[in-house]
């Protein structure tokens, strides 16, 4: 069981990921609506894993990733990307993201990545 | 994975994004260089793409994907914003709206013409366009990637010994040998389902470079990043770690199907195994990360979506609670017990607070209705070749959800009137010395116990004389009646049924609902409509609306010992008359009141109550207004003004009842019917 924080501006996407995680015994400890929210909540929530969307208002996922990595170099962040964002994902990985998943994702993919990262 | 349970939230959130796209596009039309609009549109299109793809709605995903690409090019200044681009995007939004609305059928909708226009819009920036079609077709058609890149990529059977190394690479190999490293060729195969192959390969490279050194990639790293490879790539790699360690490290990465390690150079084996043991802890597999402290300060979600029916039934229950409280109060006053009075006073305060809270919970910002008007006015103005600045104010004002649902159509009508009949064409305006662009204002403000919505324009206004002529020509009133009307009264002629007809019909307004329908609707909500106009300078229509429809101000009357509530919005005044003053015209009772003929109706007769014995000398009349005409209701007794909580008559037996808007329960537990003037007579 992992304590997970979900960062996505779409409530729909948060719900989909959350349901997948909950059905498989993981705990969603926080949901954040954008990068800024994530950076603010991270120190309080201390999640074991972060699912981070890339394109968000206020603060993009990659900036939030960098801020979180500064706060906690051992943070485990998985980027949630869409098709057509190869270069951003590549940059994110170079900045310390542990892994990534690509929308549309199914339960198996999310759990595979989670299992590998944890 | 069954996604059907997410459909509602998908639709709701998609609609929000569509609204945002619409707003931004309108902003962009005014201000084509504003990056904020472009960025917002890009983000919304992108989010929609991800959501719809997750739901498996491929048509929406395709369209939003193309829109996202276009917005990305706009963002990078590869495409400039012009009128035709805005029009195409509006068309896309309309199509998206229809697709989201009818989402089960979205796969059957053909969007190829839109895609073609979008591609045209992207043309002129050739290299970018190529890029887009590439990713798009890959995304859409799930192409066989093996053949897709055939010719470019010599990855399929690499014969390792034939690899040519550059001088730099040869130097790295020599260094590795001196450092007693093993050199191997790692052939990594990714899953068929892997979508972002370039990013996946980057992750492999990052992870293995933590335990060794990459000498060469085949294809080269930049080709890997550009995704110029199929599912396989090869890395020539030097490390002190064992093959198992390498396999383990790569195996920890998702979407890696297979890893084949071929040794190219092996140094002393024992040494390398020792090294592996010593260094085992610094590899990702041995990394446990610092212990994560459990946090007790998990922040909760700030808002929830509640079905409006829930709130309705909550409101209903609060109503019941208040009625019971009033009954308790009455019982307590009979008992004269001090302790009971005190605790009842507390109950009083609490129920009032609950009532306020529940009312507040039903409140939504008026922006939910206002937000669709900029687009509507823009389209109208465009089709009539007029220039219009729509200024919206007070969109943060909140009002009851039920009221909000009802005012959309009336406001559409008023705005259409303003654009269609009010604002002159640009040439006319310039001739008149007005600014070329017309002004249409839509504003909401909160009064003490009501909401005021005003629709105004600076157009040609209404000529009272003209309105009189139209009304006479249409047979609504006689010439004498018309001449008697003051100018402000003449303006009210527009509210007569059948007034806004033939002469004013264009293809956008005047059809279907007229101003009478607007007035009826607003009055049914317990509100009122006022019109004012200065010829040549413009018109203004003010709608006064109650904050809520769950509670209305009523005049309580009795007829044959039954109590009835007459909504105060309909009441003009009450008067006392003498029975002997009643006259009869064509068999109907009337009375002359302030020089006007007021038709009288005995509520006994209308309601079918039993008439008391004997005619009283003095009668009480409540004057109510219906469609601009006054009618006097004869009642037995006036009880006064009171706030009543409406219980609707919407069960199967009573829903076709006419004449009553609902019922309310009085403090003594008895039921009073609320009269609905519009259907009663």
Automatic annotation (TrEMBL), chain A:
The modification 4-aspartylphosphate is found at residue 53. Keywords: Phosphoprotein. Pfam families: Response_reg. InterPro entries: CheY-like_superfamily, Sig_transdc_resp-reg_receiver, ST_Response_Regulator. Residues 3-118 form the Response regulatory domain. PROSITE patterns: RESPONSE_REGULATORY (PS50110). Signal peptide: none annotated. SUPFAM superfamilies: CheY-like. One of its GO terms (biological process) is phosphorelay signal transduction system. This is Two-component system response regulator. The lineage of its organism: Archaea, Methanobacteriati, Methanobacteriota, Stenosarchaea group, Methanomicrobia.
TrEMBL record, chain B:
It comes from the Archaea. It catalyses: ATP + protein L-histidine = ADP + protein N-phospho-L-histidine. CDD domains: CheA_reg, HATPase_CheA-like, HPT. The modification Phosphohistidine is found at residue 46. Residues 327-549 form the Histidine kinase domain. Residues 551-681 form the CheW-like domain. It is an enzyme of class 2 (transferase). InterPro entries: Bact_Chemotaxis_CheA, CheA-like_dim, CheA-like_homodim_sf, CheA-like_P2_sf, CheA_P2-bd, CheW-like_dom_sf, CheW-lke_dom, CheY-binding_CheA. Residues 272-294 are annotated as: Disordered. Its EC number is 2.7.13.3. Residues 1-103 form the HPt domain. Gene3D superfamilies: Histidine kinase CheA-like, homodimeric domain (1.10.287.560), Histidine kinase CheA-like, P2 response regulator-binding domain (3.30.70.1110), Histidine kinase-like ATPase, C-terminal domain (3.30.565.10), HPT domain (1.20.120.160), SH3 Domains (2.30.30.40). One of its GO terms (cellular component) is cytoplasm. GO terms for biological process: chemotaxis. Keywords: ATP-binding, Chemotaxis, Cytoplasm, Kinase, Nucleotide-binding, Phosphoprotein, Transferase, Two-component regulatory system. Pfam families: CheW, H-kinase_dim, HATPase_c, Hpt, P2. Its main location: cytoplasm. It is found in: Cytoplasm. One of its GO terms (molecular function) is ATP binding. PANTHER family: CHEMOTAXIS PROTEIN CHEA (PTHR43395:SF10), SENSOR HISTIDINE KINASE CHEA (PTHR43395). This is Chemotaxis protein CheA. It comes from Methanolobus halotolerans.
């Amino acid at each position: 069981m992992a304590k997970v924080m979900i960062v996505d501006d779409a409530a729909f996407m948060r719900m989909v990921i959350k349901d997948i995680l909950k059905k498989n015994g993981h705990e969603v400890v926080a949901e954040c609506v954008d990068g800024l929210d994530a950076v603010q909540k991270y120190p309080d929530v201390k999640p074991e894993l972060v699912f981070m969307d890339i394109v968000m208002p206020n603060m993009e996922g990659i900036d939030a990733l960098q801020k979180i990595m500064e706060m906690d170099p051992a943070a485990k962040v998985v980027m949630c990307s869409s098709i057509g964002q190869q270069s951003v994902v590549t940059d994110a990985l170079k900045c310390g993201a542990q892994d990534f998943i690509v929308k549309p994702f199914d339960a198996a993919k999310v759990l595979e990545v989670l299992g590998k990262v944890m | 994975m069954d996604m059907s349970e997410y459909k509602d939230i998908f639709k709701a959130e998609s609609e929000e994004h569509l609204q945002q796209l619409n707003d931004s596009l309108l902003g962009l039309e005014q201000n084509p260089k504003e990056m904020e609009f472009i960025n917002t549109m890009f983000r919304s299109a992108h989010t929609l793409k991800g959501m719809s793809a997750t739901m498996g709605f491929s048509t929406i995903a395709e369209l939003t994907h193309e829109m996202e690409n276009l917005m990305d090019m706009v963002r990078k200044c590869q495409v400039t914003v012009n009128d035709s681009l805005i029009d195409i995007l509006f068309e896309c939004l309309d199509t998206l709206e229809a697709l989201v609305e009818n989402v089960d059928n979205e796969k059957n909708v053909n969007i190829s013409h839109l895609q073609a226009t979008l591609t045209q819009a992207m043309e002129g920036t050739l290299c970018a366009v190529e890029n887009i079609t590439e990713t798009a077709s890959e995304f859409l058609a799930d192409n066989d990637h093996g053949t897709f890149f055939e010719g470019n990529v010599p990855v399929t059977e690499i014969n390792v010994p034939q690899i040519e190394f550059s001088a730099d690479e040869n130097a790295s190999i020599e260094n590795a040998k001196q450092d007693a490293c093993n050199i191997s060729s790692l052939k990594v195969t990714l899953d068929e389902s892997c979508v972002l192959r370039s990013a996946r390969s980057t992750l492999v490279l990052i992870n293995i470079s933590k335990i060794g050194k990459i000498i060469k990639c085949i294809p080269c790293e930049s080709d890997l990043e550009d995704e110029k490879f199929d599912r396989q790539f090869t890395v020539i790699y030097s490390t002190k770690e064992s093959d198992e360690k390498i396999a383990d490290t790569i195996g920890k990465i998702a979407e890696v199907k297979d890893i084949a390690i071929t040794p190219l150079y092996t140094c002393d084996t024992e040494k390398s195994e020792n090294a592996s043991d010593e260094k085992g802890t610094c590899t990702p597999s041995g990394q446990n990360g610092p212990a994560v402290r459990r946090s007790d300060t998990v922040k909760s979600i700030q808002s929830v979506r509640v079905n409006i029916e829930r709130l309705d039934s909550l409101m209903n229950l609060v109503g019941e609670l208040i009625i019971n409280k009033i009954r308790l109060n009455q019982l307590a006053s009979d008992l004269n017990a001090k302790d009971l009075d005190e605790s009842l006073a507390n109950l009083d305060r609490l129920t009032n607070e609950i009532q306020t809270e529940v009312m507040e919970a039903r409140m939504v910002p008026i922006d939910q209705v206002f937000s669709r008007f900029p687009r509507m006015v823009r389209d109208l103005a465009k089709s009539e070749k007029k220039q219009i600045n729509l200024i919206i104010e007070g969109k943060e004002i909140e009002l009851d959800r039920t009221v909000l649902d009802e005012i959309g159509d009336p406001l559409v009508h008023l705005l259409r009137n303003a654009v269609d009949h009010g604002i002159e064409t640009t040439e006319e305006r310039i001739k008149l010395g007005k600014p070329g662009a017309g002004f249409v204002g839509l504003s909401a403000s909160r009064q003490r116990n009501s909401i005021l919505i005003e629709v105004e324009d600076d157009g040609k206004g209404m000529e009272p004389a003209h309105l009189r002529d139209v009304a006479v020509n249409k047979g609504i009133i006689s010439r004498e009646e018309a001449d008697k009307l003051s100018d402000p009264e003449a303006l009210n002629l527009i509210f007569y049924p059948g007034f806004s007809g033939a002469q004013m019909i264009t293809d956008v307004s005047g059809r279907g609902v007229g101003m009478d329908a607007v007035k009826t609707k607003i009055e049914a909500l317990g509100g009122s409509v006022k019109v004012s106009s200065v010829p040549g300078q413009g018109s203004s229509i003010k709608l006064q609306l109650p904050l809520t429809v769950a509670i209305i101000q009523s005049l309580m009357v009795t007829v044959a010992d039954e109590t009835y509530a007459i909504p105060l919005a309909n009441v003009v005044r009450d008067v006392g008359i003498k029975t002997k003053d009643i006259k009869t015209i064509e068999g109907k009772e009337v009375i002359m009141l302030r020089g006007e003929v007021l038709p009288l109706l005995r509520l006994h007769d209308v309601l079918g109550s039993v008439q008391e014995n004997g005619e009283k000398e003095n009668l009480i009349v409540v004057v109510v207004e219906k469609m601009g005409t006054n009618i006097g209701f004869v009642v037995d007794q006036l009880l006064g003004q009171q706030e009543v909580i409406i219980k609707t008559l919407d069960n199967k037996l009573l829903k076709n009842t006419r004449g009553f808007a609902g019922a309310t329960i009085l403090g003594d537990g008895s039921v009073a019917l609320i009269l609905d003037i519009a259907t009663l007579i």
